[in-house]
Amino acid sequence: SQQGEEDPQALSIQEGENATMNCSYKTSINNLQWYRQNSGRGLVHLILIRSNEREKHSGRLRVTLDTSKKSSSLLITASRAADTASYFCAPLDTGRRALTFGSGTRLQVQP
Amino acid sequence: DVKVTQSSRYLVKRTGEKVFLECVQDMDHENMFWYRQDPGLGLRLIYFSYDVKMKEKGDIPEGYSVSREKKERFSLILESASTNQTSMYLCASSRGLAASNEQFFGPGTRLTVL
Question: How far, in whole angstroms, is CA B26 from its chain's centroid?
Answer without folding.
Answer: 16
